[in-house]
Write a structure and sequence with these properties.
Largest sheet of chain A: 5 strands, mixed
CATH topology of the largest domain in chain B: Aminoglycoside 3'-phosphotransferase, Chain: A, domain 2
CATH class of chain A: Alpha Beta
Number of strands of chain A: 5
Radius of gyration of chain A: 12 Å
Number of helices of chain B: 17
CATH architecture of chain A: 2-Layer Sandwich
CATH superfamily of chain A: STAS domain
Helix content of chain B: 40-55%
Distance between the termini of chain A: 24 Å
Strand order of the largest sheet of chain B: 5-9-10-8-7-6
Distance between the termini of chain B: 77 Å
Strand order of the largest sheet of chain A: 1-2-3-4-5
Shape of chain A: globular
Oligomer: heterodimer
CATH class of the largest domain in chain B: Alpha Beta
Number of domains of chain B: 4
Structural class of chain A: alpha/beta
Number of helices of chain A: 4
Structural class of chain B: alpha+beta
Number of strands of chain B: 20
CATH architecture of the largest domain in chain B: Alpha-Beta Complex
Helix content of chain A: 40-55%
Chain lengths: 100, 527
């Protein structure tokens, strides 16, 4: 289960995630991003209530990061330790801007 | 209520052929017999009726108008077909003639709680029911066997009901089949093969979901057994026994209910399940309980019993039971096997004690000795356990993405049982997801194969094994992605396996007997 909450403030898009970002739910985040990302200059992903992430989730983060590198900036906030470890192992901590 | 006296029941014999040539003569004869008795029930005995045309059917319709309570008995199969095709079977009570079969001199090939099975010729066997009035039982068994077959369980379905002396029998096609009991009794070197086939079938049964309400709930039945013992056990123990049964979660998976080796047959190279009348739904502990009774419980005090019933000795029975538990639970962890066996024994002894008390076992010395022994064992076990449920260490499922939540739930249950910390649990979950999805996506054509997942979890360590029969693939041979590259140059492929390698303490792969076997080990610090 993954709950996705989107908030727009002019060209700043904030997406809060709650639950699990895995093979089953990653496509939901992907389509939520596809709907709105073109209008965003700033993208903030709030992971405060995200419990779990697998490579299917990382895949979506990477493509969002690639898009935002072209048109603005992206950051991930409120990352839990367990998920931060996954970012470390996969080198995502060097790619993403992570604010704890 | 209609009176069954001679004035109110008229019996008429019909013989030979009834067609347009003689229909009016037959009608005249029939109507003359019921004349002035329009309230009477009419029974037509059709045992010698060879043929009936539409002209003949019209005669019966006229008769039904004057005497609505009309029944026809002893109808031969050809004539019955005519009644069925024309809808007459829905308008009036039409009873088929039962074929008469003799079992004199026939080999007895099985004996169960409610009947005895004889081979009547090379291709057919008949199950003769103990109960003389067994038509309802036969009907029930046919229905559940049909249900099981539709749900994918290989079983023999009776195709005919016959008269055997004063009893009824149902006939099955069973060509040159041999029961597993016979194989175990005569070919001891086939023990391991028997265990494997027996356990595969057991897992197939227990993996089958039954639509709500189609089969009885074994838990309810077992609660009934426990309630019965309230009068015979110390109050506290009886209370705990009932509570343990009640606490077993509701489960809609199939149970056979009488799964011993006489009820499994090999026919050619196909394994078939028979004796389906005990089919139910529920937690596997109830099945293991009846298996324990069949192999051990019944014979614990008198080892000859199993020999008499199954044909093999108590030692063979014990070895077969132990090996079956090992294979079914997917582990050779003695402590865990003992625990599951004990839980099965709690249910098993409950049933045995109730059964023997109901058969007046308390009224004789031998019966009291057996009930006493089982009761002592039961009371000891009740002191030791606070739950009857357990989870197998291995599970088989179709390798499809849709089964990911099932695989995860299976793993998580084990991890939680050994208090795996959050961080390690998440790393293991990620690893399981990556490996499972890899197998689901690449091992087979979609939806075409199975994966077995096995867990050995203990304090501080979990070992998880994936086994599939798909195309050989060693994920460890894959080159690691460069995780130092900037986003624009990063490739996403291989990242999942890379994560697994870097978060697990050990990861090993082998290809053996055409199977991919991948094992993950994760350790953690314990408090």
């Amino acid at each position: 289960m993954l709950n996705i909450t989107k908030t727009f403030d002019n060209d700043a898009l904030q997406i809060a995630l709650e639950g699990r970002l895995d093979t089953t739910t990653a496509p939901d985040l992907e389509s939520a991003l596809n709907e709105s990302i073109n209008d965003a200059k700033e993208l903030t992903l709030d992971f405060g209530k995200l419990e779990y992430i697998s490579s299917a989730g990382l895949r979506v983060l990477l493509s969002a990061q690639k898009i935002m590198n072209q048109q603005g900036s992206m950051k991930v906030i409120n990352v839990r330790d367990e998920i931060n470890d996954i970012f470390e192992v996969t080198g995502f901590s060097d790619i993403l801007t992570i604010e704890s | 209520m209609p009176d069954a006296g001679s004035d109110n029941l008229i019996t008429i014999d019909l013989e030979g052929r009834i067609d347009s040539n003689n229909a009016s003569a037959v009608e005249e004869k029939l109507l003359s017999q019921v004349e002035g008795k329009s309230n009477a029930s009419v029974r037509i005995k059709a045992d010698k009726l060879e043929y009936i045309s539409s002209a003949g059917l019209r005669v019966l319709l006229h008769l039904k108008k004057t005497n609505p309570n009309l029944s026809i008995t002893g109808v031969n199969p050809e004539v019955y077909e005519v009644f069925e095709m024309t809808g007459f079977t829905q308008m009036m009570n039409v009873e088929k003639a039962y074929r008469v079969v003799s079992v004199e001199g026939c080999e007895e090939i099985g004996r169960g709680a409610n009947g005895t099975i004889y081979r009547i010729d090379q291709d057919n066997v008949v199950k003769v029911y103990n109960n003389a009035d067994a038509l309802e039982e036969i009907q029930h068994e046919r229905e559940v066997a049909r249900l099981a077959l539709v749900l994918g369980i290989p079983t023999a379905i009776s195709y005919d009901v016959v008269r055997v002396g004063d009893s009824y029998g149902s006939v099955f096609e069973l060509l040159n089949a041999r029961s597993f009991s016979k194989i175990l009794a005569t070919e001891p070197d086939k023990m391991d093969w028997c265990v494997k086939e027996y356990v595969d079938m057991l897992k197939l049964i227990h993996g089958t979901i039954v639509p709500e309400g189609e089969l009885p709930d074994m838990r309810q039945i077992a609660i009934g057994w426990a309630e019965y013992l309230r009068d015979y056990l110390p109050a506290e123990s009886a209370k705990k026994l009932v509570a343990l049964m009640c606490a077993v979660p509701k489960d809609n998976h199939m149970l056979h209910g009488d799964y011993h080796t006489k009820n499994l047959e090999i026919q050619g190279d196909e394994v078939l399940l028979i004796d389906m009348d005990t089919l139910a739904v529920g937690h596997p502990v109830f099945e293991l309980a009846s298996m324990f009774n069949a192999f051990i419980g019944f014979s614990e005090l008198d080892h000859e019993i199993v020999k008499k019933f199954q044909g093999f000795d108590f030692e063979t029975s014990t070895v077969f039971w132990r090996k079956t538990l090992q294979a079914y639970l997917g582990t050779d962890d003695e402590e865990f096997i003992r625990e599951v066996e004990d839980k099965a024994r709690i249910v098993g002894y409950t049933r045995l004690i109730r059964r023997l008390i109901r058969r007046r076992g308390l009224e004789n010395e031998e019966g009291r000795a057996r009930i006493g022994f089982w009761t002592d064992e039961l009371l000891k076990l009740l002191d030791q356990y606070d739950s009857l449920v357990f989870t197998c260490c291995a599970v088989d499922m179709e390798a499809t993405k849709d089964n990911l939540p099932r695989a995860m739930a299976f793993i998580d249950e084990h991890l939680e049982s050994v208090d795996c910390p959050m961080k390690e649990k998440m790393q293991i979950d990620v690893a399981v997801e990556e490996i499972f999805i890899n197998i689901a996506n690449y091992a087979y054509d979609p939806g075409k194969g199975k994966v077995t997942i096995r867990v050995e979890a203990q304090e501080g360590e979990a070992e998880i094994t994936f086994i599939d029969s798909g195309i050989p693939y060693d994920p460890l041979a894959r080159e690691d992605p460069d995780v130092t590259l900037p986003a624009e140059e990063r490739q996403i492929g291989g990242l999942g396996i890379f994560m697994v390698k870097n978060t697990m303490d050990d990861m090993s792969y082998e290809n053996k007997d055409g199977k991919n076997i991948l094992t993950l080990t994760k350790k953690w610090e314990t408090a």
